[in-house]
Amino acid sequence: MKKYSLPLEKLGIGFMPYLSLIVPVYNRPQEVQELLESLAAQDSRDFEIIIVEDGSTVRCDRIVEQYKSAIDIKYFFKENSGPGLSRNYGAERAEGKYVVFLDSDCIIPRQYTQVVRQACQEAGVDAFGGPDRAHDSFTNIQKAINYSMTSFFTTGGIRGQKQSMEKFHPRSFNMGFSQEVLKAYSGEEQSSYNRKKDYFSLAFPIPGKDENESAEGVLLLTASTENIDLLEARGTEKITFFQLVVFWVVAVFGLLAAGLLLKPFIRLKKVLGAVAEGDLEQDIRVDTYRETKEISEAVSQTLRKLKAVDQSRQEFVSNVSHELKTPITSIRVLADSLMGMEDVPEELYREFLSDISDEIDRESKIIDDLLTLVKADKSNAELNVEQININGLLEQILKRLRPIAKKRNIELVLESIREVSADVDEVKLSLALSNLVENAVKYNHEEGWVHVTLDADHKFFYVKVSDNGIGISQEDQEHVFERFYRVDKARSRETGGTGLGLAITKSIILMHQGAIKLQSKEGEGTTFTVRIPLNYIP
User: Fold this and answer.
1) Rounded to whole angstroms, how far apart are CA atoms 449 and 451?
2) Which residues are within 8 A (CB) of 252 and not within 5 positions of it... i.e. 6 or more apart?
3) Are 104 and 34 within 8 A, CB to CB?
4) 3-state DSSP assignment of residue 261
5) Considering only CA atoms, which of 264, 255, 180, 244 is closest in space to residue 219?
6) Rounded to an integer, what distance in angstroms lies between the CA atom of residue 220 and that of residue 210?
7) Can you tell me the distance from the alpha carbon of 193 to that of 224, in angstroms, rounded to the nearest whole number?
8) Which of 229, 280, 399, 466 could tie 527 with a disulfide, CB 3.0–4.6 Å?
9) Which residues of the chain have pLDDT under 50?
10) Does CATH number 3.90.25.10 belong to domain 291-377?
């Protein structure tokens, strides 16, 4: 870290910073260090920094301590409540004339605090912020990304890749408020007169629906005084009766207009509150304004996805329960039958025990497949990637399955068009390809054939598994990759199938950034084509 020293004014008594920079932090010590480094290099030092640690397990207090001798910085630790409440927490402890909110991953330009102070002094604004201006050289895509990263109306999730719904928290770089606005939001009416710019301003809190709730927002009213003589002989400010009446008419009208403007947002808030409580059947249509229409459409789309996920989860739980219960029921029936018989012949006894053993094996297979599928479904599932000879991998798979094929006089052939080496997880990919070849053998006619073909181009390798078996109907083709789905349920149980094999296969192939395609015609055969990149890029 570079050596910095505090400016001379900070050695005085009663120093009041012009800016209070609020930074909520959650498990980002490295980002905080980079931010503080940029703030320590500012041209203007008339600011304080308030770090609010939002329940982090990896704290940044040691890093903050390193910079206390260089810049005016305060550190607070609180229970986790999200960035919004953490910003409020910091604002309550701010002493500056303006409160500026920063995200921990910001790196502040050297002139930033100086430019902000100069702009606030010249313009006399009570609030500032919004999307960063894109450079003229940016493409349309770059401009769109820039807006998504910095606009008040976005969460910044374009960077975080989050898939769960959370409470909306806008990103906050370059967003600031005066102390008057913050006090008004707390319920206090504020007024001020800017002599330099000749205008009078009022800040009114907009109350919530309930008396106990905090303000929904703040209404800012400004009126120019450029052409109005407000000074008496002794220089005191005075407003005529007529001007006062006009002012209060404007104020009341503004409050009424604010109420009408906020009405659709209040309705949207109420609906979203019901959704947060678990009611996914809410009607989110709020079409009053273009903005509310766009927001409600986005929320509705998210709700539809949540409903689909919830339905899929319920179906999965139901299927798992059924599949696990079936072997247990069979075992119980067989055991009760044995217990209810006297002088059971040894042959019958052995037959029943063999059936019980088969059901236990089937139960174990279902559990193993479920565990494999759960591991493959994890978003952070890891692959043990190394360069593997795919030709050799397929030869091993076919060697292991030839005894099964031989029992049914099924011809099992491997055609390698070229030598292929690729970055794959050998264990997982072997399981996926084995499932395809084994299914082609099991669901085939006696004396049928299964052909496995390996080919590649400059980017991908391709494995094609074809058979002349029973085929799959067009209706069933849409569901074969679903969990517990069986084309022929009776035959699947006879062959030991759990209905999870193809679901596992697809998950593993997707983990390898690949794709799988199905072509089939009922009564003629089936072909699965797998495409996987030669080089795995995490």
Assistant:
1) 7
2) none
3) no
4) helix
5) 255
6) 22
7) 10
8) 466
9) 3, 5, 7-14, 155-169, 229-238, 379-380, 490-493
10) no
pTM, rounded to two decimals: 0.40
Judged by DSSP in three states, 465 sits in: strand
Chain segment 57-80, per-residue pLDDT in tens: 999 999 999 999 889 999 999 999
Residue with the two structure tokens 């910085």:
73
Span(s) in the chain for CATH 1.10.287.130: 291-377
Q: In terms of DSSP bridges, do strands 73-78 and 47-54 run parallel, antiparallel, or are they unpaired?
A: parallel
The DSSP letter of residue 215 is P
Pairing of strands 19-25, 98-101: parallel
Residue 83's Cβ-side half-sphere holds a number of Cα atoms within 13 Å equal to 21
Using the 8-state DSSP alphabet, how is residue 214 labeled?
A: P
DSSP 467: E
pLDDT, tens digit, 9 for 90 and up, residues 142-166: 666 666 666 655 544 333 334 433 4
Contacts of 373 (CB under 8 A, 6+ apart): 483, 500, 503, 504, 507
Buried b (16+ CB within 10 A) or exposed e, 89-105: bbbeebebbbbbbbbbb
| 206 strand-pairing partners | 217
DSSP 193: E
- Domain 385-533 is of which CATH architecture? 2-Layer Sandwich (3.30)
- Among 499, 498, 517, CA closest to 509: 517
Structure-block tokens of residue 448: 């049928």
Kind plus residue range of the DSSP H or E element containing 202: strand 199-206
